[in-house]
Design goal:
Blueprint lengths: L11 E2 L13 E5 L6 E6 L3 H18 L4 H17 L1 H12 L3 H22 L5 E3 L6 E9 L3 E4 L7 H13 L3 E4 L5 H13 L7 E3 L5 H10 L5 E5 L2 H11 L5 E5 L4 E5 L5 H13 L9 E7 L3 H13 L19 H16 L3 E2 L14 E4 L16 E7 L2 H9 L6 E5 L3 H10 L4 E4 L18 E2 L12 E9 L3
Parallel strand pairs: 1-3, 6-7, 6-9, 7-8, 9-10, 11-12, 11-16, 12-15, 14-15, 16-17
Antiparallel strand pairs: 2-3, 4-5, 5-19, 10-18, 13-14
Bound molecules: nicotinamide-adenine-dinucleotide.
Nicotinamide-adenine-dinucleotide (NAD) binds next to helix 7 and helix 8.
Length: 483
């Protein structure tokens, strides 16, 4: 790869727009969340560049839709291989631009590449239907065709995976895709585009437009009727705004939005195993994933033992430099993210919660892993997505109470439970109003399973054989035979 890893020399990264040279245009600075120091200069694209990208995407689509699924699958496979070869570069880039601990960053590269491999295979399975005809002189069939040029907006918390989960099915279906990555993590996105071009992928088919002010880009692309689909992963308020904007051009929509995941631990649980799964779900990526547990409900009989062991495990987590192999919790991505997590802790303590973990003093954007008890529904942490390493514990008495509490939220992305009872596992997972349920499993996501939410957590599914449907339109063809 010719693009350098971001560093203290703050190299410049042009946008990946076919037919546009961003060398002379505006730039913005990307800073390391671990040190606060500049690590890159990136093209700060505006409306004019967005227009160039849309024109290129339309041209790219006209060509790309003519390719066979087998040609598309071969290119996607080559891109998958290139990504794995560049694993260390991509992982280090993610550690530097978003503060993800390096071992987790390597795991993200594998996970992200997994979507490319999966959708390379799925490209060859875009089949249609032959329908029985009620008329002897007619033949009825259904074709599935690419929706057209796609606009994808992605968040910073998975700088690689949130892109491949959208771009791979889009390309496999025959669409062209313009990605607008989060302003904090543009470099991983640009590297993915470079790898695509290196393996022979057409530049007009996958483009990356970087910008410090996302609305300047999205206003142009949302208003452009040639862009037939928006796929967005990010916060619920921004998702709702884009949903409203999409009405003017009637775009297809996929919205992967915020969550407020409950984890129900029943008193038949293996406490150590339950602690392990809660730790994986809560503290992964510093608590900055949309499926991170936000509320932990523990049945009264095991509450004290569970709380003690969870607090001990949280206190033992290694906080530090994301590039250090030993680090388990890095900095939060931004001052606003750090302030929100800290505000959730302060608000809970002020309203009567108790802290079970040591009150460490940490500098910069770090927040010490924290376990709280005595948490009540009116506390902010019980209503808003925390996106930080804070685990509130709530006691419950019976199954019905736990289900009602878990469902008492506008969100519906992921929920978890721990029990040894097969009957309870079935009953509770059916009763939870969520798109994803982990039964004795705090990390359920895999490329071949559907990922997405209900209610304020969004629309549509990514991954699995469902993921490619979001990029395909269904066309009914009725043929009257010669008489
Ligand atoms: P965000 O909504 O602030 O930003 C997400 C993306 O939207 C970024 O690229 C940003 O530049 C862009 N954006 C912001 N304002 C915009 C506007 N007015 N017009 C167009 N684009 C705009 O969210 P964030 O803080 O970066 O990401 C964290 C959120 O993402 C959390 O709520 C998290 O739960 C959610 N998330 C959801 C999933 C999922 O699959 N459901 C996965 C990861 C993250």
């Amino acid at each position: 790869m010719s693009l350098p890893v971001p560093s203290a020399s703050a190299p410049f990264y042009p946008a990946a727009i076919a037919g546009h040279d961003s060398e002379a245009g505006a730039r913005y600075t990307v800073r390391s969340p671990a040190t606060g120091e500049p690590i890159a200069e990136v093209a700060d694209c505006g409306a004019e560049v967005a227009q160039v990208a849309a024109d290129s995407a339309q041209r790219g689509f006209e060509q790309w839709r003519q390719t066979t699924p087998f040609e598309r699958a071969a290119l996607l496979k080559a891109w998958h291989g290139a990504m794995l070869e560049a694993k260390e570069t991509l992982a280090l880039t993610m550690a530097r631009e978003m503060g993800k601990p390096i071992r987790e960053a390597r795991g993200e590269v594998d996970y992200a590449a997994g979507f490319i491999e999966w959708f390379a295979e799925q490209a060859k399975r875009i089949d249609g239907d032959i329908l029985p005809s009620p008329h002897p002189e007619k033949r009825l069939s259904v074709l599935r065709q690419p929706v057209g040029p796609v606009f994808a907006i992605t968040p910073w918390n998975f700088p690689a995976a949130m892109i491949t989960r959208k771009v791979a099915p889009g390309l496999a279906a025959g669409c062209s895709v313009i990605v607008k990555p989060a302003e904090q993590t543009p470099i991983t996105a640009l590297m993915l585009a470079e790898l695509w071009r290196q393996v022979g992928g057409p530049a007009e088919v996958f483009q990356v437009i970087t910008a410090e002010r996302p609305a300047a880009i999205s206003e142009v692309l949302m208003a452009d009727a040639r862009i037939r689909k928006l796929t967005f992963t990010g916060s619920t308020p921004v998702g709702k705004r884009l949903y409203a904007q999409s009405a003017a051009t009637m775009k297809r929509m996929s919205l992967e939005l915020g969550g407020h995941a409950p984890f129900l631990v029943f008193d038949d649980a293996d406490i150590d195993a339950a602690v392990t799964e809660v730790m994986a779900s809560k503290f992964r990526n510093g608590g900055q994933t949309c499926v991170c547990t936000n509320r932990i409900y523990v049945q009264r009989g095991i509450f004290d033992a569970f709380a003690e062991r969870l607090a001990a495990a949280a206190a033992a987590l290694a906080i530090g430099d994301p590039e250090d192999e030993a680090t388990q919790v890095g900095p939060l991505v931004s001052q606003a993210g750090r302030d929100k997590a800290q505000a959730h802790i302060d608000d809970a303590l002020a309203k009567g919660a108790q802290r079970l973990t040591p009150a460490l003093s940490v500098d910069g954007l770090y927040v010490a892993p924290t376990v709280l008890t005595g948490v009540t529904p009116e506390m902010r942490i019980m209503q808003e997505e925390t996106f930080g390493p804070v685990a509130p514990l709530i006691v419950f008495d019976d199954e019905a109470e736990a289900i009602a509490a878990a469902n008492d939220t506008p969100f519906g992305l992921a929920a978890y439970l721990w029990t040894r009872s097969l009957g309870r596992a079935a009953r509770v997972s059916e009763a939870l109003d969520y798109g994803i349920v982990g039964v004795n499993d705090g990390a359920p996501s895999v490329p071949n399973a559907p990922f997405g939410g209900v209610k304020d957590s969004g629309l549509g599914r990514e991954g699995g054989h469902y993921g490619i449907d979001e990029y395909l339109d269904c066309k009914f063809v009725s043929t009257r035979l010669d008489r």
